[in-house]
Amino acid sequence: MNRLKTSLVKGGLCVSLLGAALQAHAVEILHWDRRPLDIDLPVGTERVIMLDRNVRVGLPREIADSGVLRVQSAGGAIYLKADQPFDTQRVRIQDVETNEVVLFDLTAKENGASDEEIKVVISEEDGKKSSDSTSQDGQSDKGRDTGNQESKKSSVGTPVPVVLTRFAAQSLYAPSRTIEPVQGLSRVAMRLPDTMPSLLPSLPVAATPVAAWKLDGWTVTAVKLSNRDPSRTFELDPRWLQGDLYSATFMHSTLGRRGSVEDTTTVFIVTNGQSLAKALPLSQGDNS
């Protein structure tokens, strides 16, 4: 039975907290799932790609010339500026600390390429180091209790579900420099399948888990929603979601037809006292 409470997901609250998360910055989200990411560059205009990790960039010979493509990397961001158009070239991005590789298919265009900042989201399975998992899962109970007490003090008057949803939205959609730290909040393993057909069974929508964070016994999980119908646009309603969920906030209120620029969005789902994996219908909770 769907026990979703809608008190946090309707009206101005969601608009205001997600508006604050974006801070008026237009950001395109790309999800790395071991398939090369297609990125267009506008000739003559710099485009910024955020990865939130220190990387080295490997260029193919055809564009390894500052007169063709200028590349700079600093503070978890890559700055790309094409000075002339070029056909699609595969670029290798390697994490300096973990040696993990992400592949970009870069194309420089005179017209039609956006200059919006890009944020690359790397799934836990691909990007999470074992040391990170150890540090998060191995915190002592005392450390957690201390963090919880401090977080409660720092967020007086703001419900934890709102704090979590705001942080998750900022983490995925806002530049890293604008993310507000929250004491006691930590990223956690999702233990979810790659697709979740029973989350939104009434619509032809693919649901893919992205990341999860936890604070004071509450968990927020970001799930990517993609429309699979090429002819219909859908208004999104949290009551259509299935599971023992506390609240859900859609990044966008509608989901455009497949193939349109609006065919994908993110929903931030909050659960209380359990992970989303355990809150889902039994048909897909076996792997939790």
TrEMBL record:
UniProtKB keywords: Signal
Pfam families in the record: DUF3438
InterPro entries per the UniProt record, alphabetical: Integr_conj_element_PFL4704
Region span, Disordered: 122-157
Signal peptide, first to last residue: 1-26
Biased composition (Basic and acidic residues): 139-153
Protein name per UniProt: Integrating conjugative element protein (TIGR03749 family)
